[in-house]
Design a protein that fits this description.
40% of the residues lie in helices and 20% in strands. It has 7 helices and 9 strands, in the order H-H-E-E-E-E-H-E-H-H-E-H-H-E-E-E. Strand 7 (170-171) and strand 8 (177-178) form a beta hairpin. The protein is globular, with a radius of gyration of 18 Å.
Length: 213
Amino acid sequence: MERWMKEAIRYLGYGRNAADERTGSMIEKAFEEVKKTAGPRSIWRVFDIEWMEDGRIKAGTLQISSGSLSRNLKGCPKMVLFGATLGAGIDRLITRTSLTDMAKAVILQACAAAYLEEYCDRTQEKIGLELEKEGLYLRPRFSPGYGDFDIHYQEPLMRILDCAKTIGLTMTDGFMMTPTKSVTAVIGASPVKDRCPAAGCEACGKQDCEYRR
């Protein structure tokens, strides 16, 4: 089974259980619609990390206070600031579908989330290949909202990446991203070759990893 299919099934609440044949067919058709509609775009920049005396992490003009993120970035001299979106077309597709078929809209939501993860994984792999030329290896993505990495950091992160101009990604006063199928993240870059799975911590069984988010 394709990984995107497993992810969509997980987002739909099946956990590790298989979806029935009818639901599986609906997921496949919905995923095709998502792929046709999506306009995935991403932006990323690499910054040197400065560890401040009070424990804050500084990268460019961004200063972050987060124990969770500090653990994830331990041993990293650099970090990647990353943003990605599937575009506004996906929001319109889901809204339009929800007016006539709520069950299908829910499946589209799950497929779009799975497709976004797959796109981010592929993009991160490309970033990783670039940084490996410098002897650096990427950690899992770590987004605002994980642990004590406050959601409020979404705003300065997006501002530094100029997401509105570069990929058409904006944010509401309540820190919700528009388009909704979007993500921002910090990715540590370490000289130690700890090969984390592209799918992130959820795909890894190493529960005692100090970098786990």
